[in-house]
Each structure stands twice: as structure tokens, then as C-alpha cells.
Design goal:
- The protein has helices spanning about 50-55, 80-90, 110-120, 125-140, 155-165, 185-200, 215, 235-240, 245-255, 260-265, 275-280, 300-319; strands spanning about 5-20, 20-35, 40-45, 65-70, 75, 90-95, 175, 205-210, 220-225, 230-235, 285-290, 295.
- The protein has two domains: about 5-230, P-loop containing nucleotide triphosphate hydrolases (Rossmann fold, 3-Layer(aba) Sandwich), CATH 3.40.50; about 245-319, no CATH class.
- The protein is an alpha/beta fold.
Amino acid sequence: MNDKEVLVEVKDVDITFKNGKRVFKAVKNASFNIYKGETFALVGESGSGKTTIARAIIRLNNISAGEILFEGRKISGKLSKEDRTWVQRNIQMIFQDPAASLNERATIDYCISEGLYNFHLYKDEADRQEKVDKALNAVGLLPEHKSRYPHEFSGGQRQRVGIARAMIMEPKFIIADEPISALDVSIRAQVLNLMNKFKDENGLTYMFIAHDLSVVRYFADRIAVIHNGRIVEVASATDLFRYPIHPYTQSLLQAVPMPDPEIEKAKQLKTYDNKHEEESEEDGSLQEIVPGHYIFMNEKQRPEYEAKLKEMMNTSVSS
């Protein structure tokens, strides 16, 4: 990946929350790069820290250690008003719950135009109306929908409004926080195809958050697996599914249901043991085991993972 331009850098980031005297570290020493023009997926179970990292990138969560860079500029910590405006202008977020992320008292016209108003991204009223109409058409909605309110739409339509609201800002980077988890299965493919369309047309970069590996397999270029706030594996989508090395990644893949009932019945589920992670907690780090494939491990565990990878590759070749 050395020939690709790095758009977002997350370096040794810790995120801590306090409740009185109690301290909880939600994210531990997270590090990864997101390259320009790619879809980078962050996958893990509920409560693993996916959204916490995403909200830190967009500056909704403070970080307690490390730093976050966007286009080589530090965007974590204290920033000037000008730099905060630059971040808000170029990084947008599609939230998980389209009902909760839209103002129920505002019309669709205002919901989509809010960013235009805040950043004065239109010449006059006619230009603003034209931009809103174009955004609605792009997501498969009609201009006459502008006068309606969010509660008058289905979940899939509200999510389309959320996408239009993000896209109208013409950002360079979009964080999609489980944008399809609240949608019907029949609508999910439409939303993913819509996001891919915008990626191809506008050269967008996505950070796609999900807990369902079967979805990101066909949507993401690279995948990072997170468990208990710790990034445990990073690889291309192809390599992660072909050679899942970390035990937690293997357990996630085993949990994906198979369409063939006989295969599903015969499948032996792997339960992840936290003891494995505890062994590498103190002296472990995210290390490259083969080019582009990173595993959280210590030096004692490295031979075990290398042997496991070799076995997988030999099995793949023989089959």
C-alpha cells in the first residue's frame, strides 16, 4: 500500500471515559491508516469500540492518548476555529439510527440544507434549492419530498435522507456508522449500491462500521477487526476471509450463518477465549505477519500465528 496516499491516520489512540472515580478505557492503543479512495471497514461485536473511534475521528469524542491526522494535519485535541471548520467541512458522518439523527421538527429541506446554511455553501436561494433537489434525486427521492417531515418516511427513506445530508457537503471522507443495520434486508443492497455509486463518481473515502462480516466482505477494500477496544487484525478483505489468523476473527467468521442448512448444521462454532488476548496484553502490539496483514500479538505468539498462516495457505493451494 506504499504507493497509496494516506488520508486518515489513527496513531496509538486511547479513549477513556470517567464516571466519578471509575475509569473505563474504551479504546486501547488503536492504530491504522485509511487510504484515499478506499472503503475501510471496522468490524466487531456491540460495545467493542467501533463507534467510539469513529466519533473521535469526527471530534465528538476526546482522546486521552495518541493522535489522529487527516491529510497529514492533526485534528485531535485543541484546534483553532478555522481548523475545526475545515474538519467539519471535509469529514461527514452517516449515523446508525436515521430516525434519531434527523430533527423531527424540521422539514427534509432544512435537514439536508443545514450544512449549506452553516458553511454558506450556496450563492442564493435558487442555488440552494437546486443543490437540495440534486441531492434528493441522487438518493432516489423526489424534490416534492422536501416539504415533508422525517416521521413521514420509512427507515430506508430516512437513511437516504441521511446520506443526502452528508453528500451535499461534498466531503472528502465519510464515516458510515452501521448505516444498514436498522434497514430491511431488501433495502440494504440499495443503500450499499448507492454509497458505492457516490464513491466511484466523487472519489470518496469511506470508513464503514459494521458487526456483520458478510456485509463488509463485498463492500470493503480492507478490514480491521476490533475486540474490547483493541484492534486485533487488519488485512485486505480478500486475505481476511481467506486467511483469518487471530482467534477472535475466526470466531466472528464462524458466527456468519451459511445458506446451506446441511453445512450450517455440521459447522463447529469456535468460542473465543479472552485468556488468549490477556497473554499478549502487556507486551503485545499490532505486527505485520505478511505484507499488508497485521495481527495483535507478542513475540512468543508470533511462531504460532506464522505456522497457522502457513497451514491455511497450504490447505488453500491443495484444495
